[in-house]
Structure formats: structure tokens, C-alpha cells
Amino acid sequence: MAVYTEVTDDELARLIAGYDLGALLSYKGIAEGVENTNYMVHTSEGTFILTLYERRVDTADLPFFLGLLEHLNRRGISCPLPVRNRNGEVLTEISGRTAAIVTFLEGVWPRRPRVEHCAEVGRALAGLHLAGKDFALTRRNALGLEGWHALFDRFAPRADEIARGLGNLIAYELAYLDRAWPKDLPSGVIHADLFPDNVFFIGDKLSGLIDFYFACNDAWAYDLAICLNAWCFEADFAFNATKARALLSAYQSARPLTEAEYEAFPTLARGAALRFLLTRSHDWLHTDPNALVKPHDPNAYVRRLRFHQEVNSPGEYGLERVR
Amino acid sequence: MAVYTEVTDDELARLIAGYDLGALLSYKGIAEGVENTNYMVHTSEGTFILTLYERRVDTADLPFFLGLLEHLNRRGISCPLPVRNRNGEVLTEISGRTAAIVTFLEGVWPRRPRVEHCAEVGRALAGLHLAGKDFALTRRNALGLEGWHALFDRFAPRADEIARGLGNLIAYELAYLDRAWPKDLPSGVIHADLFPDNVFFIGDKLSGLIDFYFACNDAWAYDLAICLNAWCFEADFAFNATKARALLSAYQSARPLTEAEYEAFPTLARGAALRFLLTRSHDWLHTDPNALVKPHDPNAYVRRLRFHQEVNSPGEYGLERVR
């Protein structure tokens, strides 16, 4: 939980006066959120989120992220819409931080995803991929294969402080992925972090997608593999084939995988597991014990990675070959 | 900032289904709040606050606090209104905590109170005192003179870890108040914690009062002295006589002080300063350095207490004798 930067009432009232949002009625710091400071703001025009961008976000990336949200909204995707001020700008400044105001999305994220949630997410992810097709800006995936090596180099000597043998596991996997990582798969804008806390539901119906601050250009099927990791394992690390089938077939009903994507899927699943294992391991070793936000346990992704290493064919995930 | 207890979407949806509040649309943990966990909840019927009562609140006091809010709402005071579930109950349970849902009040609290804010608060405090007159329940002030002694006993040997001479200052002041503390002043329900973060404004107009979890029965003028301490000193600890005059005269325009209250006011101001000096000192010494909430600096109340000790007459506060 985290409000890193305090905003005063006078500052916020002054900021809001620069938008067509009516009068400031109230604002509350939101406890969720790891990267940035978020306030929920009520004005006479409705509910909005004010985000202050903290350390970890490179402000040079913000035009991509916020432009993407505008593009996706135009394409009918339910995600936060950046609000422009009277100068037509999306980016502003408050309390010494670069900031933006976006529309508030109703919905709750599922703490215990069910099969129906997984199907909704699969469908929404395919919709997102298709809607992003003609977005003009691009952003390299800093957390791709090359980035994984760089990240591992930063903590490799200390990896076994987390779990015995973790250094070897990661080194082995990186060597495998260097050989096996697919090239030239169908690509475009991917969300790259579509975990349950970034997907809102009202009842069983998906109401919106949030937190596009890892979005980038990469293979679409890799994004699907991230979702498989995020949505289809239980708290005891068991793979849930029913959820996976629901996720994958809902995705394919909107965008069927190519033969190359189908064949590559187990490798993509390994890469996706490794990506989160790497960032979690790094954060585990580098988080100040007094930090407001507790790091995620890397072990959940050790377990997923070991599962994927045993998979022999795409069909074991419940993935159907459709063409 | 503090969300001590997590609430899952399923639990909350189940809880909300027991009220006439329509469907759950969203909920966010609020970073503000020291004592309890608060969620801002949107349902199809509006915005509400779900409070989970943590350690420091004695659940035996909740019927007083929540009954008071209902009473004050009936008397036209703008404060949170507890929502009853379909069984007619205000208190419920979620995530292993006693909890309640109250209406959400729009407004922002002033980070830098101005004279106009002080006048509004004075008026609102008098209104609160008068509206509480016929409230049936009572609650002893656990943080009265007797409670101050008990609290000091808990940290007296370590007081000078905070500031050299603090132990002597408090012991001297307690001895003075034992002799001088007024008895039989006009009494009733007091808020007892009406700091700026508990008073909401929309523009310059007061929109509501919150956080009644220190409310109790005690001398009304003592509550006014608490507000004087909370609202009429600057960040550099200088007393602001203009703000004090605005606060006190607005209060008196709705409820003029008696002669006994007028005479006692400097002593009440000393007691009010000591009360916050004591709790802040205690918390300063007893807060886990890893705690989510940083304790307030006791020194602000050392400075206020020393100021009050130099005051020779009620008129020095800008208090007018009206009868």
C-alpha cells in the first residue's frame, strides 16, 4: 500500500481548475498500487484517478502509455481514459511529480479467479491485441530476453539467498531460452502485466482493464502466456487445466493462434514465468525491509517455471490447434 | 497510511447483499486513517465508507459512537450516517473484524487552515454541542485528568528520551491541573478530536465532520480548547490570534460561554495541550519503527503548552466575555 507523495487540497483545487471537471469535492489516497501514488478524486463531474508518477516510471514512456489508453478507448476497449486539461495536455505536474488524471473505472478485481473470470480475460486480451493494431507509437519491451539477462546479472551472485539452487535454475533457463525463444511471431501492443489485480469485474462480467505501465510491443502469444501464468495456477501452485482451457479458447475465439504461435506456446510460458521470477527475485533482494510495499514471493514463479519445464506439448495446457 | 485488514471481493459482495445498497461496483482501501481500516465503496446506490475496527477501538464503545452519528444526523449535523442492514443492524462483521458501513461525505480537509475555516469550525462545534444535548447514551472521557496521570505513568521514566526536561514539564503541569482543573462546567457530548483532518470543506464552506471515535461526555469548553490548539497555531508554533478570535467568536455566536467557562479557558487550553502531548509522547516511544503510520511529533504540543503557561487571562486568546 502506498501514497508516496502527499497532495494538498489547495494544490489539487488549483490543478482541477485547469480542467473541465467542475469543482473538487473530495480526494482520498488509495492504498493499492506499487509503482505510483494514486488518488481517487470526486468532482462535480464524476470520479477520476489522479496518478503521480514515482521513481520507477520513466516519464519518457508516458506519451506511449497515455496515448495507448486514448487509442484503446476509441476502439471501444474499457480502460482508463486520460483527461485533457484546457491546454489540451494529458500530462501535468503536481507536488513535484509528473501526473495525469484519468477516468475512474468501476469494478472489483477477483481475489480468487474462477473459470468464468479466465474466459472473460482471454476474450478481453484478444480484443486488446486487435484494438492495438493501428496504434502509431511503439515501445520496446525492456523486460524481454535481453533484459532478463541484464536483470539476472544484477543479482546472480545473491540468487541463492532466496532459495538454494535458484541461481542455477535461472542460468539453465536463460541458456535454454537463448536457443529456443521464437522470433517473428505475430506481434503488436501487449499489456504485459494482466494479473487479476489489473482486471475489473462487476459480478462475473469484465468491466475494464487497468495499469498499462508495462505495455510495449512484443509477441501477442507471449502476453497470453503471461496471463496463463497469472490466472491459471492455484494458491498451492497447482496448474488448473479447466481455467487454462477457458482462457485459451476464449482468446482463440477472437484471435486464433498461428501454427508458429501454437508450437512456441510452451516456450513462451517458460519465458513468462522466468520474467516474473526475475523481477520478483530482484525486488526480494533489493526491497528496504521498511518499505511500504512488501515484495511478492519469487517462489510462486519457481514453481510455475518447474511446471512448464515438464510440459511436452502445447496440448498439455489445453491449447487447441485451430488451423 | 493504513489498510491493516484486507477484504476480498467475494466477502464484500456477500456483505453488501445484506443491505439495501444495490450491487457492489468497486472498493478501494484508503491510505488515510490511523486507527482503523477504511474502504471507499461504490455501489449502484452511491458512495459509502466501510470501516473495520482494529485493535485500538473498544467494540463496547461502538454503540455510543454509531448511535451518536445517527442522533446527530437526525439533528441536521452533517456527519457520516451509519447504514443499517436488512436486519436493522449497524454493526456487522467482515474479515474477522467488527465493521460498519456509513455514508460517504464529500469535502476535503484543509492542509493549511485559514481564518474562514476557523470561523466555520467554531460555528460547527457549537452546533454539535447543542445537537448532542438530548443524546441518550453517555461515555466517560478516558483521556481526562485521571487518564492523563495513568498514561504518563506508562512512559514517565522514558519521557526525556523525547526531549530533555519533558518528564519534569509534564509532572509540573499535571500537578497544576490537579489543583486548577475546573469542575461542573456545562457539559455534554464532545468530539474531543476535531483536528483539521476531521473537518471537510467544499470551497470555504464546511461540508461535514468525521471521525467521532474519541467522542465522549465532558465539558463543552474543553472541546473548544482542543480546537484552539488544533486550528490556531502555525507550522512554526506561533499562536495566530486572528484565527483564535474567529474560532471563539463564531462558537460563542451559537453558544456563548458562561462566566465559569470564560474564566477556566486558559486552564482548559493547558489541559488540551497536555492531553495531546501525552498521547503523542506515548505513541512516539511505543511505535514500531516499521509501523505503517508514523507518529506525530510531540514537540508541537510542548510548544503549545509552554505558550498556554504564559497566558494570564482569557482575553489573550481573543475570547470575549459575553455575559
Features of the shown structure:
homodimer; 323 residues; alpha+beta; Aminoglycoside 3'-phosphotransferase, Chain: A, domain 2; 9 strands
Structure in a nutshell:
The first copy, chain A, has two domains: 9-103, 2-Layer Sandwich (Phosphorylase Kinase, domain 1); 115-317, Aminoglycoside phosphotransferase (APH), C-terminal lobe (Aminoglycoside 3'-phosphotransferase, Chain: A, domain 2).
CATH domain fold name of the largest domain in chain A? Aminoglycoside 3'-phosphotransferase, Chain: A, domain 2
Biggest sheet overview of chain A: 5 strands, antiparallel
Oligomer: homodimer
**How do the helices and strands follow one another from N- to C-terminus of chain A?**
HEEEHEEHHHEEEEHHHH
CATH homologous superfamily of the largest domain in chain A? Aminoglycoside phosphotransferase (APH), C-terminal lobe
Number of DSSP strands of chain A? 9
Q: Which runs of chain A of at least 5 residues are low in confidence (pLDDT < 50)?
A: none
Looking at the structure, what is the overall shape of chain A?
globular
Q: Approximately how much beta-strand content do the residues of chain A carry?
A: 5-15%
Radius of gyration of chain A: 20 Å
Which architecture name of the largest domain in chain A does CATH use?
Answer: Alpha-Beta Complex
CATH top level assignment of the largest domain in chain A: Alpha Beta
Q: Please indicate the count of domains of chain A.
A: 2
Mean pLDDT of chain A: 95
- How are the strands ordered across the major sheet of chain A? 1-2-3-5-4
